[in-house]
Amino acid sequence: MADQILQNEQNSLNPSCRDNPLSFSSSFSCPCCSFLSYNDLFLPVTATTGGEREEIDAPIKKNGEEEEEDMMSPLDALDQIRIASPPTEEEEDNKGEKRRKRVLLVDTHGHPHLNRERQSHYINPDKDENDDNNNNSNTIRLSCAVSESDWTQTLQYASTSKSILPALGIHPWYLSSLSPTYLHDLEILLQQHPNAIVGEIGLCKVAKFIRTYEEGKTAALELQRRVFREQLELAVRLKRVVSVHCVQQHGVLMSLLKEMREEAKIRIAKERKLEQKGDGREEEGGGDDNSKWCLADAFPPKIGMHSFTGTAHHVKELLAFEESLYDTFSDRRGKKKAKKKKKKKKQKEDDDGNQHDDAVEKDENTIQNPALKRKPIFYFGFSHSINVVMCSSSKSRKQGIEAIRAVPTNRLLAESDVHSHEDVPAATAGSVSYIAKAIGWDLMDTAELTALNGFEFLGVGDGGNDDVLQQQQQKLGMSS
User: What's residue 467's pLDDT?
Assistant: First the structure.
């Protein structure tokens, strides 16, 4: 089925477009422009609660094996979700008004465009799965490219449905055939598709490429790091979300992120000094508006750590790093000036009493703490195909459960991480089941939780829909 879909899309292109992946005919449907807006979506509700959600305390298990034994299988989870929220295109309420189609699942990472062999965990031999063998099922999905050779294929696959969003990038496994113009070509495609995200990119110590690279392991790791950073910086320039693969390279990742942060500090300090000097304020103790000097701007707007296999400690380390990006007074000179300014104002207006103190405090929060209005940067995805099937030891299972519990609930993402489009619904349901068991939530509550988070991560919630998302998050009792 996928071969036919892709062949039809290929035939719809002009010959020049088939030869040049950076050129598309006007008849080619832009996948990111046709992707569903939040207004096209309708989240499922639990019939017994009428949409109201209550958070459940997560039960503590002794080991990962117990968690896996109690976990609902992907196929059973998918059946339960379908029963609770039938996948109809349209419904009519009592007044005869049409309602938007329901969204059951949001898959924030996979490679269904590759159309490789299916996995047995997601095949139901007793049921006709024709409803899943198309791109119009009630599963929103992100299809991530892995190399330059499948960028066009990814875009073609995404263009077949409004429920699919493409991600373009180079996976750390596929660097052996890296072209010298890859970054330029990638930038052109991303500019042509303004809602496409950057991915899959990252770092991987166990990649076959590392062992077989003709220039040696050290050179391979350095190349991997360089390509990852180049793509990360491209995402920063274009303000794109990224999907990151990181396996046994957490230390390298943190080192790279901190390096980017320190470079941003130096750049910001220079820019502030030049602006203050240009405005004649250098002698006045720093009267510039520090709210615009934010280290977070030196990073992509959102970073998804996909099929996360790190520890709870790694989760906390990334969250602490994110927190550090919102310290606008990050250099000593800036902190000293801010303190001096506050003292001077307090002495000058001491007769204002408490009213003045409140005003100063409010001003301090507005200027020094953009975190009051910020959205999460780091999200953490977990998949059944990796975090359950491949992480089979009791130690790795326990580590995975602890990592999930360390993630604030509004940053948890469901992923299929499969390579066949038929496997996406069940694999994503398996992810939801895994997360639900880890945090002790009801299956449907977790499906809605991960759907909301997925919309926010993919950018579907941006542009005036924040109130809707916040209302749903409050119902779920989502932590930040």
Answer: 54
